[in-house]
């Protein structure tokens, strides 16, 4: 390694870390943006329109980069990204946020990095240390206890939506992470968004005809943010950061996302925040940190 290489590497790590942190900050606004969107759009309309906005941005970027089509063996993984990250997660979390608070939802979805790690381990046939599985089960138990406590001993419909969102998105994340080793990361989400178009277009037509629309500043801003940032731009930053500093190190930044979302729920939405939500979020973060170390 030359002296010039040694000088460049810290700069690359610093840039990659800053990019990953900026992506996490961008994602942390997604749930408040969803709540704003629901002030003017129905859940099906919001999901379809955010996907279409992201598809336009993705098509422009792919065209500008003259990106080649993925290979035949890459399409199944991209389909998993489309189903999990473009269709399933946005719709299910939007349905949940109609009746669930942002703080409650943020804590439950805080399990996403852990769920993704489990799916990734099962998908690749890896055998993490026993501590990995103990931490994964502990994190799941903490969230289940929090959810049951908040829902008076029974899961609400919103909770079921959130758990389903965790499942489908963890599969999409795991497949996206695998494909990012073969394709530029931003192309993974770009092709995933475009692959969802055959579902997004008819859904948008049907939803606009059946769900009422009330345009307002919050609704339009929330929808634009979801489409341009939550569904596409945030992923561009996230995968670019991962490419520079690696998946394990980038994942450490994601540990702060639930706490950031809790802060925005209070500051932007005025939601009351009891002690259970931040304490549970911290416990989940500790479990995720153990799984990260065990995987490494």
Structurally, the number of domains stands at 1
Please summarize the sheet with the most strands: none
Mean pLDDT score, rounded? Answer: 84
Classification by helices and strands? mainly alpha
Globular, elongated, flat, extended or rod-shaped: what is the shape? globular
Count the strands? 0
Unreliable residue stretches = 3-8
How many H/I helices? 14
Q: Provide the succession of SSEs.
A: HHHHHHHHHHHHHH
Give a structural overview.
With 296 residues, this protein is mainly α. It has one domain. It contains 14 helices and no strands. Helix 5 (102-109) runs antiparallel to helix 13 and helix 9 (185-195) packs across helix 11 (217-245). The protein is globular. The two termini are 25 Å apart. The model is unreliable at 3-8 (pLDDT under 50).
Question: Which key features would you list for this structure?
Answer:
296 residues, mainly alpha, 14 helices, disordered N terminus
Structure, briefly:
The chain has 14 helices and no strands. The chain is mainly α and 296 residues long.
Spell out the blueprint of helices and strands.
Elements: H1 3-28, H2 30-37, H3 43-65, H4 75-97, H5 102-109, H6 112-124, H7 130-150, H8 157-179, H9 185-195, H10 197-210, H11 217-245, H12 247-254, H13 257-267, H14 276-295
């Amino acid at each position: 390694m030359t002296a010039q290489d040694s000088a460049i590497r810290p700069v690359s790590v610093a840039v990659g870390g800053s990019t990953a942190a900026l992506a996490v900050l961008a994602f942390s606004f997604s749930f408040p943006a969803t709540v704003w969107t629901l002030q003017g759009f129905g859940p099906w309309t919001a999901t379809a329109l955010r996907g279409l906005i992201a598809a336009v941005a993705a098509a422009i970027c792919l065209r500008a980069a003259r990106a080649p089509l993925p290979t035949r063996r890459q399409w199944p993984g991209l389909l998993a990204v489309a189903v999990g990250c473009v269709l399933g997660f946005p719709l299910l979390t939007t349905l949940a946020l109609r009746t669930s608070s942002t703080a409650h939802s943020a804590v439950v979805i805080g399990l996403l990095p852990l769920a993704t790690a489990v799916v990734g381990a099962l998908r690749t046939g890896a055998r993490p240390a026993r501590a990995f599985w103990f931490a994964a089960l502990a994190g799941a138990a903490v969230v289940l206890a929090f959810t049951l406590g908040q829902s008076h001993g029974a899961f609400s419909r919103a909770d079921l939506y959130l758990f389903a969102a965790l499942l489908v998105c963890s599969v999409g994340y795991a497949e996206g992470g695998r494909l990012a080793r073969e394709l530029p990361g931003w192309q993974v989400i770009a092709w995933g968004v475009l692959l969802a178009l055959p579902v997004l277009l008819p859904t948008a037509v049907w939803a606009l005809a059946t769900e009422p629309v009330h345009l307002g500043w919050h609704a339009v801003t929330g929808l634009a943010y979801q489409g341009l940032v939550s569904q596409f731009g945030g992923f561009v930053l996230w995968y670019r950061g991962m490419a520079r500093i690696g998946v394990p190190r980038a994942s450490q930044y994601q540990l702060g996302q639930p706490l950031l979302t809790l802060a925005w729920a209070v500051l932007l939405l005025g939601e009351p925040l009891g002690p259970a939500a931040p304490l549970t979020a911290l416990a989940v973060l500790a479990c995720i940190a153990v799984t990260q170390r065990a995987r490494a």
